[in-house]
Every structure is written in C-alpha cells, then in structure tokens.
Amino acid sequence: MSTEDTPDKPEKEEKPGKPEMPEGPERPQEPAAPKAEPGPEPEAGADAEPEPESVPPAEETGRPAPLTGRQRLLNGLWPPRLTRAQLTVALLLCVLGLGLAIQVRTTSDTSALRGARQEDLVRILDELDNRTKRLDDEKRRLENQKAQLESSSNQAAEARKQTEQKEEQLGVLAGTVPAEGPGIELTVSDPKGAVEADKLLDAIQELRAAGAEAIQINDVRIVADTYFSGSAGKVEIDGKKVSQPYKFKVIGKPQDLEPALNIPGGVVQTLEKEQAVVTVSRSEKIVVDALRPAKRPDYARSSSQ
C-alpha cells in the first residue's frame, strides 16, 4: 500500500469539555470543606423558631456598659462635690456637736446622784434639810451676839461672857468637859458577832449629819479624831476594846436624830441585815460624862495672841 493511500492521522485528538490547564508546576489541592451532619428535619407544617440576634459585647462595639442603680448612687456620692458654704456649715455643726458631747459627759460625770437609790436620795435630802436648819440657827445666834455687843454699855464684860460660853462649847465638842441635854439612846446588840467596825462608824457619821453635838459609846467619848478598828465582834475605838451591846448616848435634837437612823436603807436597817437587834429611844436628858484629856498643841498657837 502506498503512502498516498494512507490517510494522515491528526496529531492530537481534541476532546470537547473542560480546557486543559497549561503545563507547569502542580497546584496544591484545596482541602475539602467538612460536611455538616444532617440534623433532624423540621416537621412539616411547623413554624421554625427565629434565632435570637446576638448582642455584640461592649468591647467590640466600643460603648461603655450601662450602669446599675447602685453604681449611679455611688458615683453621685463620691467623690463629694462641696461648695465653700457647705464646708463652712459642716465645720460649724461639727464644733457644735463636739461641744454638746463634752457638756453632756461633764454633767454625767459630776452628777453623783444620778445612779443613787431612792433610799439614799431620801437620806441625803433629810441631811440637807437638817444642815440648813442648823445653819439658820447658828446665823440667828451670831446675829443676837452681834446685837448684844453693839447695844451693851459694857462691851468688855459682854465679850468676856461670850468668850467663856464659846470655850465651853468647844470643850463639849473636844470631849474635855461633860455635857447633858436632850437626845437619844441607841443600843446595838450583836449576839452573833457579825457587826463590823465600819457599821458603827457609819452610825456615827449619820448622827453627826443629823446634828449630834456630843456622842459617847459605852465609856468612850467620840470626837473628831476618833477612829474605829478591829474585826466583827472585836471592835476597838481609839485602840480600846469595846464589848457589845454597844450603847450610844447622843445629845442633840431628838426629832432630827431618830428619823435619821430609821430612814429606808439607813443605819437601823443596815444593822438589822447583820442580824443585830437595834433599839432607839428618845430622852429629855442625856448625860455624856466620858472625858478625853485636853492636849496642848505643840506648834499651833492662837492668832489673836
């Protein structure tokens, strides 16, 4: 067969479809996207719920988060925004409050009667009334003496008479001379020996506050420098042992002395709590004859000499 009879074959057959890529380096294959798992298909006829719109956070939007009510209140209170007038008023109120507090505290500290019992208040009031009466009597006596001195023709004799009377009065108070007059007798029986020395001292103080002018316990004269010592049942007065029953002889106004001992919470009730037997009796004549030696002072001298 000759070459002329043989038909020429095409060098390359062209295939219809996607054109071929030009030759060159191979391109990397892109990874395939993952397939979503099939979920449950919505039922026919059911309306699909709309998905909630997502709110972007404050950091992404650039807007500050809204403040709560408490935060707005704190922001309004702090930092304080005060004017000069408000500062002045606040300073004045602070000074006024400090002054009132100091005044109230001073008043409460100096008031000794704030926490006192009713019995103590009654006793204190009775003592004040008696002391006022005695001061009034002393005032009238001094005024009478002054009137006598001014009206007397012989002022020297009148002055000497008043000096003698004053010396006698001082002798009664000092316990160097005997005394007599109206008063009361107080007897304290202590069979169980439970009365302490301080209870007898309280009785002396109560009698003096009621106007007692001369006091004697058993055979011991009570004066300004008298002291009590010892234990219950072994009481000593000025270093001298005194046995019970304790007998008080007191010269003074009976109408003042007896009520002072029998007031609620007074001497009689206090001694009876110690299981002592107490009796008080009035008398128009009480004799106080226990004496103390007169002592001449070593250093003190009368300024009139």
Automatic annotation (TrEMBL):
Residues 30-43 have a biased composition (Low complexity). Residues 1-29, 158-167 have a biased composition (Basic and acidic residues). InterPro entries: DUF881. It holds the Pfam family DUF881. Residues 145-156 have a biased composition (Polar residues). Residues 1-71, 136-167 are annotated as: Disordered. Transmembrane segments: none annotated. Belongs to the UPF0749 family. This is DUF881 domain-containing protein.
